[in-house]
Amino acid sequence: MKGHGAEDLFNNLYSFLEEAQFDIKYCRGQSYDNASNIAGKYSGLQARIREKNPLAEYVPCFAHSLNLVGASAVNCVTTVSGFFDFVQNLYVFLIASTQRWELLTKGLDSNQLVLKRLSDTRWSAHSAATKALSKGFKNVKTVLENIAEDPEEKVEARTTAAGIAKKMDQLEYGILLELWTPILDRFHKTSLKLQSPQLDLNEAVQLLTSLKEYVNSLRAQFDFFEKKVKEITGSTSYKEENQRKRKRSVQLTRHDGSADETVFSAQQKFRVMVFLPVLDHLRSALCKRSEAYSGVCDKFGFLRNIRSLEQSDLRRASRNLIDTYVDDLEELFEDEILHFKEYLLADTYLHQNEKELKCSIELYMYRALRNSSALQDIFPNVATALHIYLSLMITNCSDERSFSCIETDKKLSAKCFG
Fold this sequence. Notes:
Layout: H1 6-19, E1 29-30, H2 36-39, H3 45-52, E2 57-58, H4 62-75, H5 78-95, H6 98-107, H7 124-135, H8 137-149, H9 155-168, H10 171-194, H11 201-217, H12 222-233, H13 250-256, H14 266-300, H15 311-324, H16 333-345, H17 348-353, H18 361-370, H19 373-378, H20 380-390, H21 410-415
Parallel strand pairs: 1-2
Helix pairs in contact: 4-10, 4-14, 5-9, 6-8, 7-10, 8-9, 10-11, 10-12, 11-14, 15-16, 18-20
């Protein structure tokens, strides 16, 4: 590679395909992370490939998308950024001394997790860090208070421990901890599922949509989080309530005149300016990401529901697919899909074992066609449509590793579906 620009990447890829005698006109899908040089809408690698072949559908990497959603939500509010800095500083302070770390491990119960560090490139680390702190919150605070009161500790260490323990008394940080712990856990579990070889695009979109609705449901649970944190920390006041209130500048008052101000309580201010913006930003980012997959799902989504769709809906969906892939699907596809619906309804094995299937219904149908030459002769266009759909990548690599470390062994292939 002589450069990392979109043109350099395209020239290298195109040269490789020509040398390997792969015709790019047969490409039906491409997937990358969200770097602008490859995912750019107008001049990225994916756009340049689609200039050569419009049927090379671009599917952004789902796992990378979830990482970006979380990262953008953290940076949208300074209080949230400060909270994660606090989580990291707590870990760094305790791990910096073997003596302090030993006090921590002894102070935690046997079923509690030790503190974890954050990582800019592995968002699963955020989930592990918040979960560990949430589970051992009281014990960690007790360890910090013991360090702060230990006369044998250095003054700097005692002061730092006291400062961190004081922050743990703040309702703001407690609420953010209890809010982010389940959110990051849901993001982490969803991300792992998105890397499953058995996952198809419809299920991936369904997971993303359900995650969006889950985040939206938390907007009405502020009182629940506040009550829970008060029980854990024993604190009943916000940081702002203990600070001197700022007054409007006299000069501004003389210039603009006096005006009635809307006065928020510390609780209302935190809810309106921190709690809700975080959830709204997460939901907005998830909506934006899901739009990137809606076009593909509109084309192929009906394949999952063949047995339940009406004939008119099946004809409409199959016609749309024929008009898109004019060189791949014949006009007979409409009637084939109707015939294939009746075949599936008569499939006794599928009817009896659908819940126990270890693959998606689309993959089951494709395998049934591939394993029977007779069925391939009867439903050739159905097999082609399923082949195209199942070749579209959902996730092109694992986000459970550093983005800067390229995984080149066979494990990567096992995580890719297509």
